[in-house]
Amino acid sequence: MATIYDQISSNNRKAFFLIFFFLIFVIFIGWFFSYYYENTSILYFAVILSTVMSFISYYQSDKVVLTMSSAFLIKKEDAKELYRIVENLAITAGMPTPKIYILEQAQPNAFATGRDEKHAVVAVTRGLLEKLDKRELTAVIAHEIAHIKGKDVLIGSIVVVLVGIISILSDFFMRTFFFNQNSDENKNPLFLILGIVGVILAPIAASLIQLAISRKQEFKADASSILLTRDKEALISALIKISSDKTPLKKINNATAHLYISSPFKGKTEWYSKIFMTHPPIEDRVKALENL
């Protein structure tokens, strides 16, 4: 059976893979365009961009996530009960107390971010504090502490930056193709088609990696939450309450959706939405918890 140390090692390898994937993708696209338009400065730009964004994805991704979510830092006196819950669970997990942020959103939800235990953040919505009781809130926080302890937050935070940048670059390159199509009449059409296919598939591949990693991590964090609280019923109740609440999250996007304990997108039942779900179905998570 895998230990927490195995999980941490695995997540470190995944983080390296994601950054490596991003570097290769951006440099390859830069090479493609520099070759196609016979301009080597495009390749140099791609190398510099991929290097800078890889650095940001590792060291500054938590700040990017918090800014995108409009979360604000609180002090102990601002929410004493919440602070005590986070502090006690961090002590139980043998880690420093994370910083605590709140999102002024009515939807009950929560996420964690940061590259390691010393730079970790737990963020909760106002709706979570108002709609869950103390036991349920403790179970949710324990779930987020488990993500931090297992270094899941490193992967999740890196994915936010890299998937976002890959999507932006793919969109930019597609627009470049269309705006320059008249000047490309004498270029090899097969080469052009391969480039377009690559640009289209890149963000899809990045999203699929994001989803595969996120879904597995949720099951692990659920189980780890139970080890911290010894209160399986509270987590089951919290998951059901959160998932059944139809209040929309006013400020959310696909890049950060996988970080939350439950999908922040509400009311999507189409088959294609299920394929690209950032979380496993709540029914599956509840069943897994009941079998523990």
Characteristic key phrases:
mainly alpha, elongated
Report on the structure:
By secondary structure, the chain is mostly helical. It has one domain (4-290). 68% of the residues lie in helices and 5% in strands. The chain has twelve helices and four strands, in the order αααβαβββαααααααα. A four-stranded mixed beta sheet has the order 1-2-4-3, with helices on both faces. α1 packs antiparallel against α8, α6 crosses α8 and α7 packs antiparallel against α8 (189-229). It starts with a helix and ends with a helix.
Q: What is the mean pLDDT? A: 79
Q: What is the percent of helical residues?
A: 55-70%
Quantity of strands, as a count: 4
Question: Rg to the nearest angstrom?
Answer: 21 Å
Q: Strand content of the residues, in percent?
A: 5-15%
Number of domains: 1
Write the layout of secondary structure elements.
Elements: H1 4-36, H2 40-59, H3 61-69, E1 72-73, H4 80-93, E2 99-103, E3 110-113, E4 121-125, H5 126-131, H6 134-149, H7 152-179, H8 189-229, H9 232-244, H10 254-257, H11 271-275, H12 282-290
Parallel strand pairs: 2-4
Antiparallel strand pairs: 1-2, 3-4
Helix pairs in contact: 1-2, 1-7, 1-8, 2-7, 3-7, 4-6, 6-8, 6-9, 7-8, 9-12
Short summary of the structure?
The chain has helices at residues 4-36, 40-59, 61-69, 80-93, 126-131, 134-149, 152-179, 189-229, 232-244, 254-257, 271-275, 282-290; strands spanning 72-73, 99-103, 110-113, 121-125. By secondary structure, it is mainly α.
